[in-house]
Amino acid sequence: MENNRLWWLRIPIAFFLILGLMEFFIDSGNKLAILEYPMAQAFMLFILLLIIAIELILAAIENVMFQTLSEEGKERYLAAKNEKWEWEWGKRTYSKLLGSKPMEAEGEIILDHNYDGIRELDNKLPPWWVYMFYASIIFGVAYMVRFHVFNDYDQVMEYEQEVAAAQLEIEEYKKTAKDMVDVNTVELLTDASDLSAGQAIFETNCVACHMADGGGGIGPNLTDANWILGGGIKNVFHTISEGGRDGKGMVAWKQNLKPLEMAQVASYVLTFEGTTPANPKEPQGDIWVDDNTGLQGAEGD
Ligand code: HEC
Predict the structure, then answer these.
(1) Which SUPFAM superfamilies match (predicted)?
(2) Which of 194, 248, 256, 283 is deepest in the core (most CB within 10 A)?
(3) pLDDT attached to residue 160
(4) What is the pLDDT of residues 123-166, one digit of tens each?
(5) Going by DSSP bridges, is the β-strand pair 110-115/118-121 parallel, antiparallel, or unpaired?
(6) CA of 222 to the centre of ligand 1 (A)
């Protein structure tokens, strides 16, 4: 018995329908949920197995029912099943769109020309082509009016809009990705919230050696223009992250502080410059001139 001919269509349709629904309901940002979450993959695998199981059960039931039929019933059932109802609709639309005459009716449209036995049929233009042609005319008129009469926007404007939108996205991204700073991307933070977070970190971890006002003790004075290991946000971030010269007492803080926290405390440290601490330690190192050469390096003198 030819069983459930359409299983190969039903399974993928059901599968992709559920996949589509899932993607619609799960918010996974720009990525597909099925790529993002292993759970989603497991779920879809389960769904696939379930659909296959349902198909198998249905086939089995049909088979059992079929066996219970009388011989005559079986014949009638098969006859009904074999009517290819599934494709009737598709076939009809297809031939409508094609608009061609069936072979038997070709006599009506044959032309008089006869080139050594080669005859010509006067077929109508196929409707699918004609409709597309009309659609392109409508599109063309709308396009011309919009862009050449009303000058809606041009390529340059489109480009600028997209760049502006992308710029906004970058800003958004930077806000959420603040924590991903490293020594190459770190920038001086100036938000009050960042600076007060930096102050809190400084007061918990650093005052023992640098004093609360940055005047210095075991560690150098952070309020003067002199830096042993280089000034500027990048050098200071680097010093905090990697530590000072061996044996001096300034450890690498990257084990204990997150990148964002190091950027915050580094920015806070830089607010000391020019203030007058209670007990300033004498300047050490060179006067830092920011000449944009970037990192001085932890081994600097
Ligand atoms: C155990 C004492 C100690 C603690 C705690 C400490 N530092 Fe230091 N720090 C030092 C010493 C000593 C140096 C000098 C290192 C050198 O000479 O190589 C230094 C150097 C620095 C420098 C470079 C100064 C320059 O002139 O180049 C910065 C910036 C700094 N510390 C920031 C911090 C921050 C921020 C913290 C807290 C997260 C911290 N330190 C905690 C002892 C300490």
Answers:
(1) Cytochrome c (SSF46626)
(2) 194
(3) 96
(4) 888 899 999 999 999 999 999 999 999 988 889 999 999 999 99
(5) antiparallel
(6) 9
pTM reported for the whole predicted model: 0.52
**Minimal-distance CA residue to ligand 1 atom 6:** 206
Ligand 1 atom 16: residue of nearest CA: 244
SS3 of 190-221: the string is CCHHHHHHHHHHHHHHCHHHHCCCCCCCCCCC
Question: pLDDT per residue over 243-262, tens digit each?
Answer: 999 989 899 999 999 999 99
What's the rounded mean pLDDT across residues 12-29? 88
For every residue of the chain, DSSP letters joined together read ----TTHHHHHHHHHHHHHHHHHHHS--TTS-HHHH-HHHHHHHHHHHHHHHHHHHHHHHHHHHHHHHS-HHHHHHHHHHHHS-HHHHHHHHHHHHHH-PPPGGGGGGGEEEEEETTEEEE-PPPPHHHHHHHHHHHHHHHHHHIIIIIS----HHHHHHHHHHHHHHHHHHHHHHTGGG--TTT------HHHHHHHHHHHHHHTHHHH-TTS--SSSPPSSSSEESS--HHHHHHHHHHH-SSTTSS---GGGTS-HHHHHHHHHHHHTSTT---SSPPPP-SEEP---S-----TT--
Our mutation pick for probing the ligand 1 site, out of 250, 265, 270, counting the most ligand atoms within 8 A of Cβ, is 250
Cβ 213 vs Cβ 277: under 8 Å: yes
